[in-house]
Design brief:
Order of helices and strands: EHHEHEHEHEHEEH
CATH topology: Rossmann fold
Distance between the termini: 10 Å
CATH class: Alpha Beta
Bound molecules: 5-O-phosphono-beta-D-ribofuranosylamine
Strand order of the largest sheet: 3-2-1-4-5-6-7
Amino acid sequence: MSARQPIVILISGSGSNMAALVEAAQRRRWAERFGAPVAAVISNRPQAAGLAWARERGIATAVVDHTAHADRDAFDTALATAIDAHRPGWVLLAGFMRILTPAFVARYAGRLVNIHPSLLPAFPGLKTHERAIAMGCRVAGATVHRVTAELDHGDILEQAVVPVVPGDTPEALAARVLSQEHVIYPRAVEALLARG
Ligand code: GRF
């Protein structure tokens, strides 16, 4: 077994990517094979549905509410304290809707990974599906990438491509992309864990 590399997952909402990661960790025995249990799920929003899901599965959860902090630096410092309590090898952003400070990114350099619902470097930022449809893209998709201080930037670890179909709506496209996110995120993470 490799050195311990526990995983902390950051969410803001429904947490379906987090759930896919937790289920992959159990099914593929990440704790036993790689010393990589999912140690905690942390949300910046107290009402994030994913928190209850994780708690029901016996995973430690925490809330670091961004509205309770004066600025980005104060929030990121509190977030880092909550994360570091679990001594993680990896910090996985899974629908975590906050822009992180360069100091936060530097603290977890090389250990911070994100999933973004577009084929980066196309469409960083928000409303990716709406923009892809408006541009007339024939394909869309999702990207797992390392996090840098630049938003939705950084080395690409995995991508999935889905078609954009005539008459597509952002909601329909989002659902098509999301089902692929649940495949590529666990796959990309397992590849990282295997390298240690
Ligand atoms: C996903 O599409 C993710 O790529 C994006 O926000 C969505 C979050 O979904 N950043 P979930 O919370 O993982 O269900």
